[in-house]
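User: Hi! Is it possible to get a structure for several chains at once, not just one? Here's what I have:
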Amino acid sequence: MRHTEDSAAVTEALDLLREKGERVTAARRAVLHVLDDASGHLCAEDIATRVDEAEPGVHRATVYRSLQSLAELGIVAHTHVPGSATIYHLRHSPGAPTGHAHLQCSTCERFFDIPSDWLTPLGDRMREELGFELEAQHAALLGTCAQCRAAAG
Amino acid sequence: MRHTEDSAAVTEALDLLREKGERVTAARRAVLHVLDDASGHLCAEDIATRVDEAEPGVHRATVYRSLQSLAELGIVAHTHVPGSATIYHLRHSPGAPTGHAHLQCSTCERFFDIPSDWLTPLGDRMREELGFELEAQHAALLGTCAQCRAAAG
DNA sequence: TTATGTGCAAACTGTTTGCGCGAAG
DNA sequence: CTTCGCGCAAACAGTTTGCACATAA
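Assistant: Yes, the chains can be modeled jointly so their relative placement is included. Here is the combined structure:
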C-alpha cells in the first residue's frame, strides 16, 4: 500500500466508508485519489488507467466495483453519457457547491457544466404536471457548442 | 418481398429515399413499417425482432445500418438512453407535431414524453450564455416517475 | 451492368459476474 | 477468524465492420 498523503476530501470519504462499515482498501483509496486530483470528469476506464499508475495491479473490474459502491454511498456521482462511457466525480467537490448538470457537444464530444438550478424551472414543471422528479445531474444533455457551431457555419 | 400496403408516412419516406438516390429495399421498407406501426419507442433489437416477423431473414446488422442511413436522411430520429439501447421513431410522425423530449424513470425504466418547448427557455439560456445549441430530443432525461415516487414513499 | 445494400461472422466498447484467494476488520 | 473485497477470466449487451455475394436501378 502506498502512503501518499490523503487530501481532506479523500480523508472525509474514507471516514464515511468506515462509518458505514465498509472496508478501506488500497483500490478504493486510489480511486478516490484519482477522482480528487481530476479536474474534469473521468470515465471508469480513465480512472482505471490512473489508478494503475499509482497502485499497480488494481484490476479494471475492481475499479468498476469500487465506483459502484462509492456511488451507492453517495461519495461519488455518476453521469450517463449518451453513446459513451459513464463519467464519475466526487460528490462534495470543493469547486462545485450547488451541483452541476452536464452538457456534451455531439460534435467535439467536450463537456460543459451548467449550474443545476438552470434546470429548476423545468424540474418544477415536470413535478407539477407529471409528478415526475427530475434528476438534472444524472444524464448529460446533448447539443452543439459555440466553437463547433462556428466551425460548421 | 412482401406486398403489404404502405401507409402514407412510409410511402413518403420511401419517396424521400428515391429522391436522395438511396435504394428502396425490403429491409428498409420493413424497418419503416415497424416504426410506423409502433406506438411507443423501440430500440434496434426490438425493431429487428419485428422486422424479422414481417420479413424473415433480415439480419440485425442490416437493421442497424438501415436505421443509421434513415437517421442521416432525417427520416427517423434517435434518442440516446442512458445505460441502455438507443430508441428510434419516425421523424414526422402524425401524432407529434412539435417534437418531443424523452423522460425515463430510473426505477421502472418507463418512458414519458414531454413537448420540446418545455425545454425552450433552458435552450435559450444556453445559447445566450454559452453559445451552446441544445438538442432537446437527442438525449433522454432521467428522474423518478409519480408511481415509483409513491411506491418509494 | 454496376454501385449499393445485405448476410454473416467477428470484432469492439463498456460493463457485469462467478469463482476461489487474500486481506481488512 | 470471518467476512468482504479483489484478481482473473469469462460473459454480457449494444453496436460496428470487413468481406463476398445479391440486387435495385
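Strands of chain A lie at 42-43, 76-81, 84-90, 100-105, 111-115, 133-134, 141-144. The mean pLDDT of chain A is 91.

User: Great, thank you!
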